[in-house]
Amino acid sequence: MFESLSDKLSGVFDRLRQRGALSEVDVGEALREVRLALLDADVALPVVRDFIARARDRALGTEVLGSVTPGQQIVKIVNDVMIEALGGAGAVPLNLAAAAPVPVLMVGLQGSGKTTTAGKIALRLRERARKRVLLASLDTQRPAAQLQLAQLAERAGVPSLPIVPGQTPVQIAERAMDTGRREGFDVVILDTAGRLSIDDALMAEVTAIRAATNPAETLLVVDAMTGQDAVNTARAFHEAVSVTGIVMTRMDGDARGGAALSMRAITGAPIKLVGLGEKLDALEEFHPERVAGRILGMGDIVGLVEKATETIDEQEAERVAARMARGKFDLEDLAAQLRQIGRMGSLSGILGMLPGAGKLAGQLGDAKLDPKLLKRQEAIISSMTPKERRQPDILKASRKRRIAAGSGTSVQEVNRLLKQYEDMSAMLKRMNKLGQKGLMRHGMSALLPKSMTQGGARRPF
Length: 461
Fold this sequence. Notes:
Rossmann fold; seven-stranded mixed sheet; alpha/beta; 57% helix
């Protein structure tokens, strides 16, 4: 998400940074390029106009034209305006400030990921907020929809409302709330039916359910991949049922990202959560300042640290780090590192959180970050004997063929993994040899393998 927009904006800002003083003409040209980049990213035209107008008003002030670093000031102004467009600093949490059981109404079109999102929210509330959650499907339109939610509830470790054939969506909602009161649930998540497109029947149904349950949250689930259609859907639902929050799914996809930038301005409702994959735990709070940072190539170090804190086994990490510090690093340790990274999510997602990662991804060219790469590498190491993992030097042609066959990979992939291991080992040896003072004197480039240098001289890192 946002890769194309991020690349274009980074190009604009790089050119600005290379200049000294900026004139009004320079600022105007830069903002025209920003405007084109936003429109190309599918941001709604009224939102783009307002964005550029606010950025221009601030950019033409004396703090930019008279600044020592005018290029950096422009970047900061665009960053600030983008945060405002995305909803302001800080995540907006779910509103559960109501008498239990708190009704949470899920609305949206069919195929937006609404039912899966209901299961994700249930898991999140159970694990993070220690809430007793009841899931209830009000979808009497789609075959097996109620059964699907029951299966998701089982995976999330929460109960689901028993299915009673013949009931209307409003009757199911009322029964869910009655069950929630009688059985002491904290939250009842009501998953409504969707349609392939907005129609009167859909709106009448969700309006009736909302009137019967008076939800504390009415969450609209929209697919970020649908671009402007997502914005139009949000506008229609907001006018009909007064949406209190938006959940954007498939934010890990390759959409242009304009819908996210348009949502708050078009509906007035904040994006509260984002779905980042199919797994039930792939749901995160939406932080406008972090998303703006990623779009502008500044990364999201805070988000990366939080993700690492949640997923990394500290004892295992310390054990591997201690061995690495002593210059001891074998394939068992590499496998442990791969498992730790795998728990943090996709490689592209992790890379996107690093400052300047867009340029790095561009340098990788066709070497795309395959999400299955880590699993294949783990499988290769698992197919080795304990002795082979401890002594990779003994891995000759016949052993490599056996390992490739056992892991369902190729000998070339085995060789690539071993090359990766050799590079890491060489880097650790250089690190130990240089010591802290050597690293400070020569910089990180001293650790790079020769394959990443030009003409034998190490490039600055």
